Amino acid sequence: MSKIDPKHRLAVNYYLGGLNKKASAVKAGYSAASTKDVFDHPNVRALIEKRIAKQEEKTDMDREYLLGKLQEIIATSAGDLLEVDEKGKADLNWERLSPALRKSINTVTVDSKNPGGKYAKTTSTVKITTADRLGAIKEAATLLGIREEKKTLDLEDGLIAVLTQRRQLNNKPDEG
């Protein structure tokens, strides 16, 4: 691709920024009548194709990165730290803390209590909260195209549709 004219580049910037071709050409300083000539120019077409390909590549990388992070969250569980002995006593084994689990842990709270008394044992309760696994599954499914995001019906549009339907039913002539 040879050097592109600055006005052509500006038209492409406006176009890829969301304006239609005519508005982009006019905003870049061309007449509305020359829109076709501007966007049919080989350098302009090449620049648009190059920028779109670059954006798609970036989107794919971002998508793959996000999927990888979501998969880490989905695959981890605080239960992986539990170790249960033959008597059924559970204990936390921090040596089992994988890098993925470490990243998915939001908080660790340790609460120690001593009920008092000469022979009373101090007990500790450990509470571990991790990232939302179900939420991560839903997000991954959406990114993969397996699940569509919920679409909410605009209340005003829904109300208008119901009223229109009732009006049509009320204005029907009686059959019989």
Could you walk me through the main structural features you see in this protein, from its secondary elements to its overall organization?
The protein is of the alpha+beta class. The chain folds into 2 domains: 1-74, Arc Repressor Mutant, subunit A (Orthogonal Bundle); 76-138, no CATH class. It has 7 helices and 4 strands. It has helices at residues 6-16, 21-27, 35-40, 42-75, 99-104, 133-144, 155-170, and strands at 82-84, 90-92, 105-113, 123-130. The strands form 2 sheets. Strands 1-2 form a two-stranded antiparallel ribbon. It has a two-stranded antiparallel ribbon with strand order 3-4. A hairpin with a 5-residue loop joins β1 and β2. α1 runs parallel beside α4 (42-75) and α4 packs antiparallel against α6 (133-144). The N and C termini lie far apart (75 Å).
Q: Could you write a compact summary of the structure shown?
A:
This protein has 176 residues and is α+β, with helices and mostly antiparallel strands. Helices cover 52% and strands 13% of the residues.
